[in-house]
Amino acid sequence: xxxxxxxxxxxxxxxxxxxxxxxxxxxxxxxxxxxxxxxxxxxxxxxxxxxxxxxxxxxxxxxxxxxxxxxxxxxxxxxxxxxxxxxxxxxxxxxxxxxxxxxxxxxxxxxxxxxxxxxxxxxxxxxxxxxxxxxxxxxxxxxxxxxxxxxxxxxxxxxxxxxxxxxxxxxxxxxxxxxxxxxxxxxxxxxxxxxxxxxxxxxxxxxxxxxxxxxxxxxxxx
Length: 222
Known about the structure:
It is a single chain. By secondary structure, this protein is α/β, with parallel strands linked by helices. It has eight helices and eight strands. The protein has a single domain (about 5-155, about 200-215), classed as Rossmann fold (3-Layer(aba) Sandwich), CATH 3.40.50.1580. It is about 40% helix and about 25% strand. Strand 1 (about 5-10), helix 1 and strand 2 (about 25) form a beta-alpha-beta unit.
């Protein structure tokens, strides 16, 4: 199959990091992602990647650590990621964890919610786009992989300001963050910890993306 690799992200900063030779980047939150991805796939496509940050569901996954998905579930069905392509990513990211992942429509905010999600699915990490990407890739018989960096460890509770700061197009709404802090100033210490974790994850995402290289690790002719 000829053509580009489509890389799907939910946040604008992820999209900027993902850009590179041989790829087309698509950035949408999960509510609008399916329609935009279907439209993008009317063109020739070699494979689809779900890329960005993720939440940890187990204690062993720390901020800044890479995960490459073995399988992706939405809680009801499980989809295998492309094995050979995943192996290529694991060679480029030698410290990455090869794990099962889950995709959800809503964020897992509290430690109890994250641990319950792990218990219910067996997944070690979670994000909010990969389940949509996996379903569409499977329906179209297009190779699919998921590689992400942990930004939100299992023990962390996400404060309201962190959730309020994400616009529907994946950009950051600084005024919404500020308004949430003014309304509830007690969340500021937790927000600062989230910001630190996100900074660590962003640095790791940038370094790892350079290692992955052109075509996002999908070998020519694959």
